[in-house]
C-alpha cells in the first residue's frame, strides 16, 4: 500500500469512529440523557440505558486491551460483556462516558501511528488463515459495535422522555 493510500484509509477509518456520517455520535446521544431514568427498563428490553452505556464502554475497552501488546484475558461471552443488574448513579454515568472517550482516544492514537500496520494481525490475534484479527478489523469492529448500541441508546433516550 502506498503512503497516500495508507493515509487515506486511516483517515476514512478515523472519520468512521469520530465524525457524523451515516451513524450517531456518542456525545450527541449521551448528552442531555434523562439521567433520572437511566436505570429504568422499557417493557420488552432486557437492559437499562446505563447497562447499554456500560456495555459500550466495556466492549470498547476489551478491544483496546486485545490489540495492545501484553497478555490478554478473554472475557466470557455474553455474560462478561454485560453488567449485573444494578442501579447506577449520575457520577457512574459520567465516569462511564469519560472512560469511553479516553479509550476511544487511545484507539485513535494506535490508528494514527504509522507503525500500526492495518493489515497485520494484532498482538493477541489469530493468524489470517482463520479469522484474521487484523488492526483494521478491530478498528472497524469498534465502529460497527458502537454505532449499533448508540442507536439503542438513542431509542431508549426517546422512550424515557428525552429528546
Q: Explain this structure to me?
A:
This protein has 163 residues and is an all-alpha fold. The protein is globular. Helix content is 54%, strand content 0%. It is built from five helices and no strands. The longest helix has 25 residues, at 135-159.
Question: Could you list some keywords that capture this structure?
Answer:
globular, single chain, mainly alpha, 5 helices, 163 residues
Topology at a glance:
Blueprint: H1 3-18, H2 26-30, H3 49-67, H4 90-112, H5 135-159
Helix pairs in contact: 1-4, 3-4, 3-5
Summarize the structure.
The protein is an all-alpha fold and 163 residues long. The chain has helices spanning 3-18, 26-30, 49-67, 90-112, 135-159. The termini are far apart.
Amino acid at each position: 500500500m502506498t503512503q497516500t493510500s495508507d493515509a487515506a484509509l486511516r483517515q476514512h477509518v478515523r472519520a468512521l469512529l469520530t465524525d457524523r456520517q451515516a451513524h450517531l455520535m456518542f456525545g450527541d446521544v449521551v448528552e442531555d440523557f434523562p439521567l433520572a431514568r437511566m436505570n429504568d427498563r422499557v417493557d420488552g428490553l432486557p437492559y437499562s440505558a446505563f447497562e447499554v452505556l456500560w456495555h459500550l464502554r466495556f466492549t470498547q475497552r476489551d478491544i483496546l486491551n486485545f490489540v495492545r501488546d501484553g497478555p490478554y484475558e478473554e472475557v466470557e461471552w455474553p455474560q462478561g460483556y454485560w453488567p449485573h443488574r444494578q442501579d447506577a448513579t449520575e457520577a457512574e454515568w459520567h465516569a462511564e462516558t469519560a472512560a469511553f472517550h479516553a479509550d476511544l482516544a487511545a484507539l485513535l492514537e494506535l490508528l494514527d501511528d504509522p507503525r500500526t500496520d492495518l493489515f497485520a494481525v494484532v498482538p493477541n490475534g489469530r493468524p489470517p488463515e482463520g479469522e484474521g484479527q487484523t488492526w483494521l478489523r478491530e478498528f472497524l469492529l469498534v465502529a460497527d459495535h458502537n454505532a449499533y448500541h448508540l442507536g439503542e441508546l438513542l431509542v431508549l433516550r426517546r422512550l424515557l422522555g428525552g429528546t
